[in-house]
Fold each of these.
Amino acid sequence: MMAVPREIVGTAGLGRRPQLSDEVATYIRELIMSGQVRQGEFLRLEKVASDLGISATPVREALLSLRGEGFVHLEPRRGFVVASLSRQDVEDLFFVQASIAAELAARSAERISPGDLDELEGLQEGMAKAAEGNDVDAIEDHNHRFHRVLNVAADSPKLTWMLGTVVRYAPRRFYGTIQGWIEASLEDHRIILAALRAKDADAARKAMHEHIVHAGDLLVSHLEDQGFWRKAS
């Protein structure tokens, strides 16, 4: 069963918003990247629209966008089908994300303000408390805000924009369900924070790169456990 994000369901008049198709594309992209829908499965417009409580038009627009990204392809007279997603594809996406995020972390280490450091500390504490209460939504929200504050502190808007383009392929709303991700993120964040406090750009770069690659490895393991990739016969 598809998990429907809060951002889409139950919002009056949302169908009139021009960015709705982008939100639907994010939703479907995350379904694919988290393994909830798989290679060869058809994505029926009416079914997705019904699940999200919206019309079919933004769903079609989203699927056409995802077709351009290579996530789905269109079979004549049959509809949109999920394209193949290899282990290497997932690893490559996280490699690119790690490379850009690492450079932003290094720049942040040199430029971050005491106020930003305090905010990061607070977000880290909030994430830890949310983990104690097993509040997955709060964990993911604190994690997202942690990275946003850090990236903005780098004062490199073009590089931050490039990272945002890559990050949209990562299943943000499903990380909390991946075994080991919460614990790994809390520990990785502590190492990143220590590097930022020390204003050690090299250490921050290394810590962030390892953090993102680690997240990618956990996602790959999660997909493998689900049998996402068939073993070669």
Note: The first helix runs from residue 20 to 33.
Amino acid sequence: MPERLLQAEVMDDPGLDAVEHETALAGLARLNALSRAAAILRPDLEALARSLSRPVRLLDVACGSGDVPISLARRFHARGIEIELTACDISARALGIAQARASAHGVALRTIVLDIIHSQPPERFDVVTCSLFLHHLDPAAAVCTLRHMADAAQSLLLVSDLRRTRVGLGLAWAASRATTRSRVVRVDAIRSVRAAWSMQELRALADQAALAGASVRPAWPQRMLLRWRRS
């Protein structure tokens, strides 16, 4: 792949029409379901949950419509594992959509409006998760975000994102057209892959954020997972 190309995504425009924004979030939720975005996080979360004798306190950062953490909560509830779910995002509109989605699925969700780049979460959690957000950021903002998330994680930090590959670019183009008619999703899917980090770049960001012992591994399809456990 060429060098990383960070462009403003349409979804990040605060002036985006509310209906178009909601349509785009629904399209992204379908993309996440197709790519099994929640499954990337599931094994580490389940291992942590099994080690505790109480519900897992989980914070999902930059949650968007909340489809990933809600999917996790529903899956774990069906298996007898309870999660106390909190989600944060800079967009109050997105959090409102996440709250409605959670209610529709019978999932208890607490929401926090938070700019994770510039502010730490107001409390600590057993695990902090973040999906498909880090590629929106420049290096300095990405490092700040990793530090703030790690500070809030009592046990575990899990960050999943796209990988910048030619295969990933092709998959993003095809999947965005197969799952939604949203022009926002179709534009942003391509921009997201072009702005994504490589695995080596993500490891370097983790080092800069002082996440000693962090690992980065590939995940299907053309994704990667950064895992850091507090020692």
Note: The chain has a mean pLDDT of 95.
Amino acid sequence: MSYNFDMSSDFVDALVESPIGVGLLAVLEAKQRPDVLPWEVQMEVSDAQAMDRAAKWAATTASLGYFLSEAVRIAEWAIGLHVSGAPARSASAYRWADQRRPIAIALAARLKAALHEPLDLNNQEWWTSPQERLHQGEGPHDGGLLWTVQNPPALVHDAVTDVWEFIGNTSRWHIDIKSSPKIKEIHRPADWIELVELCPGKRRPSH
């Protein structure tokens, strides 16, 4: 997971163009409205005053941890590929995405420092469950999954472990990288396409 974008405008565009982004903007508006549930994504109409309040909240209060935890939860229970009713929710969120752009702009301004922070490989962590010892060159011995993430804020830990379906204790590891790896940052679908075109003969990742 990387938080780095070339420009804040890229981040704004990503929010209003991606399913998770438009879902997040919808939820931020919903939290400012008494007539819908605070986690609602699908709405018949959008409320300009609620959007304005959401933009002011995002500009003054939003934290990176809150932003990431909400984004992960929305992907898990609202608009994920395997979530019932997800297409209708996504369609509704996209319908009002342009009107909610001020919320995205406020988030970009609030999170500017984190968005422009360079990727720090020394801050990268490997997570696995259940807790066990990792041996050099090997993964979990019980066939469990091993995930990597750039040390997320504490507020997002529960959301990450839920969406990864970790059960029981979660173990976090720092693994030193001895050589200079080739890094390809993935922020949007076009990045995946570029990666496939650069490495057409590589095997697809298993996770």
Note: Residues 192 and 198 are 10 Å apart (CA to CA).
Amino acid sequence: MRHQDKKLSCTDCGVPNCYRTKGTYPQFCLTTNTNSEEFEEAKELYKSDEFVSKFALAAAEIEGAYYGRLTRVEEIIVFAKKIGAQKIGIATCGALINEAKIFAKILQAKGLQSFAVSCKVGSTDKTEVGVPEASKVEKGCHESLCNPVMQAKLLNKEKTDLNVIVGLCVGHDSIFMKYSEAPVTTLITKDKVLVHNPVAALYASSHYYKRLLEEGDI
């Protein structure tokens, strides 16, 4: 897409007036350029949809009471209790099983049940679902498929109230969210290079990772 054809959006804004409304909106602002009926329809869901209403209220209460005071682990625990969740599903990457074990112990200490499923459950070789041998990390040997579909199905079977992602790969997390019957939130977002701190690439894009801002493929 040519730069002159780009439709401006929130990342092009330098005056986030939508938060406190103490200034002016840019001409391209989505707040002022979206049909008011769409906003009213969305706003109505916060009142009429039980799921949206309960989750939005719980999230707002946590933000208001604990802003900048709780870790993500603590926020998930407080959120779970506010929505009445008792059994927490943990969809974990096999490489982060130790982190998942610690999280499970913390949940237990705070009075919550948990049930974890590793991504390698089923030990299905990648080639069995059509992945070429050439696409394996290590060629010529059994290499188990990450299996987010079964992770979701097994947690569905356990009737978990809230599922937490612990380091699933890009794409695998999307599949898991699609098949999970319980609502999903994320504790750890995998980044093998940056020790699971992907935002560091954004902070370092002006120096160490300046190649990210160069046009063209990675």
Note: The mean pLDDT is 95.
